[in-house]
Known about the structure:
Layout: H1 4-20, H2 35-41, H3 46-52, H4 56-66, H5 80-86, E1 91-93, E2 99-101, H6 112-117, H7 119-131, H8 139-171, E3 181-183, H9 187-207, H10 209-227, E4 237-242, H11 250-270, E5 275-282, H12 287-291, E6 298-303, H13 306-313, E7 318-321, H14 327-330, H15 333-347, H16 369-382, H17 419-425, H18 434-452
Parallel strand pairs: 3-4, 4-5, 5-6, 6-7
Antiparallel strand pairs: 1-2
Amino acid sequence: MKNAEELKKERTEIFHDLYDGKIPKRVPVGGLIGIEFCIEFAGLPPAKTQWTLEGIEEAMDRICQMTGQDIYPFGFARSPVALQILESRILRMGSGGFIQYTEVPVMEADEYDDLIKNPHEFIMEKVLPRKYKALDADSVTRSIVYAKAAKALFDHLDAFAKIDAKLIEKYGYYTPPPESTGIALAPLDFIADELRGVKGLLMDVRRCPEKVAEACEALLPLTLKRALPPVPSKYGQTFMPLHMPGFLRTNDFEKLYWPTFSRIVQALANAGQPVFMFCDHDWMRFLDYLYELPENTRIAFEFGDPKVIKEKLGKRHILSGLYPMTYLKTATKEQCIDKVKELLDIMAPGGRYYFDFDKSLITLNSVNVENYFAVVRYVAENAYYDNAGEEAPKYENSGRSFIKVGEIPPFKSKYYKTWEDYKKEHPEIPAELEPVVAQKLQMYEEMFFMLIS
């Protein structure tokens, strides 16, 4: 039985080989598990536990004991305290204790010009008070609400960060380098998810496609700033959940989605930061587009034909997903193992692959838990390569030149100050203190930017 330090070393080597374009010792194992599942599995009261976090560490520890992922299996947990302070209309806790997303359009169809003029200022002035009722108030009240919500959120994040650090060390999970991870939405996804709603955006695509295209272009600087972490690394990643393409006609995807999305991915790659994208729904129509992205882009699929995906993309990008979570509920353990063997036979040869499911594990009743753990452990214990250390086969780059970060206009907003902006307004700061003051002030500037963007 390997100890945590040995597991950490092995898992780091496996993922570094994967990202370096080598055949790893074995297929790495992913699989994201929601905090809600941990709470249900432990028999804790969902609502109270999310408010108090009582028993949450023990519940998460119990899952770590039972599963076999190589990466830390828990993602971001929303703060019900912050959401309640803000009186969120978008994310609200339901009667069952689950925080649920409700599509509430917070931008009107005739407001594209305001969005295009400056997206960040439009979000601050118009969108946030519509998303959060407590911010639709006078300036003093709004400031107090912001302060309380920020404090609640960062207390929540700090509590989970301490739990995460303990469990990562205890179980030897692979972790990316510090400050090398980010998350962002593609511009068109941002308009759909955060502003207009899916229905509203689809109407806009038909009625005013030129305005939608302009808005996507205007969102590029904000998107890139959100996506690029402080310390880019080929062993880190920026997560982008891609929602809208499955709802779009191919012609609309080509004209409205792909131009800005692909430039963000290219700019990040040029900065040394890979993108990990989750292709929501069916992307089989768009595989040839995905091929054109920078080599070793990480692509997880919800649906699709594994053979075709592997054939088209398997020598260029790192692939994952496709194991159907629903199968774990309806099939026997033996059938679930047979299914994962089938997937491994297709996806594992030649490397550039790690195992994952088509969805995250969120609720207890969505799977047979025994089947879930059996599949994860099977891959971790059996999916070894005979040719570990060899270079993974690849298609040569077609010669496409990728844009650089500097080719996207810099992000600017009157609600965001760089240190240079601040220094011009406060020339009285002693020169010897500038490095210290700059670091502190910029840190809080970035924290608030991430909070509201």
